[in-house]
Structure formats: structure tokens, C-alpha cells
């Protein structure tokens, strides 16, 4: 680490309240990338929650699958590393859940469309 970074963290650390010192000094605390990467990844969760209003026919199943799979992989990884990163765990769990929900919505819509097309193609019972 650079001298500038270390000195900056030492100065900032003096202003951190005593009760928050364990978090400040934690191996996955705010002085590390292990804290900030999950914090910014919450933006994906916010975007995913915003997409819940998106019409089902506009959902990309492949993109949602990619997000869901990576969410599950990183959820597992966050518990396999030392120290365990609970912020990374929770953000990836939410990424996976929102993606899985979107996949469910998209596939349900596609199934409904197939059923509607089949109903249009079958002869009507009222014609007899």
C-alpha cells in the first residue's frame, strides 16, 4: 500500500468513534476493497428492483441468467474466503434472488404466449 493511503487511513481512523473501531479495523472493513466492492454492487440490486416494473416481454432471460448464476457463485465464494464477507454475501444473494424472480416472470410470460397462440390455432367449440 502506498504511504499516502496509509497516512490517510491513520488520520481518518482518529475520527472514527470507539464503538466503530472494530468495523474500521476489520480485515474486510472500510479500509479495504472487500468493503467497497460490495457497497457499490448494491447498485445492481437497486437496478434489479427497478426492473421489477419492466414488462415481462422486455426481460432478457440470458442477462438475468448470467446475473443469477454469478450471484449464486459469489454468494458461495463470500463464505469460502477468510474472513467471511457478509456484505458480499448479502449483496450477491439479493442479485441472485432478483435475477431468479425476473427469469420466472419472463418464462411465465413466454408460456402464456404459447398457450394463447395454441388457443387461437385450435378450432372453437362454439362453432358446432
TrEMBL record:
Q: Does the keyword Cell membrane apply?
A: no
May I ask which residue range the UniProt record assigns to the signal sequence?
Answer: none
Q: Keywords on this record? A: Membrane, Mitochondrion, Mitochondrion inner membrane, Transmembrane, Transmembrane helix, Transport
The protein's matches in InterPro entries, at most eight in alphabetical order, are given as: MPC (IPR005336)
Cell compartments where the protein resides = Mitochondrion inner membrane
- Taxonomy, superkingdom: Eukaryota
GO process terms (BP): pyruvate import into mitochondria
What membrane topology does the UniProt entry give? Multi-pass membrane protein
| GO terms for cellular component | mitochondrial inner membrane
Protein function = Mediates the uptake of pyruvate into mitochondria.
Family from the record: Belongs to the mitochondrial pyruvate carrier (MPC) (TC 2.A.105) family.
Q: What is this protein called?
A: Mitochondrial pyruvate carrier
Which organism encodes this protein? Answer: Acromyrmex charruanus
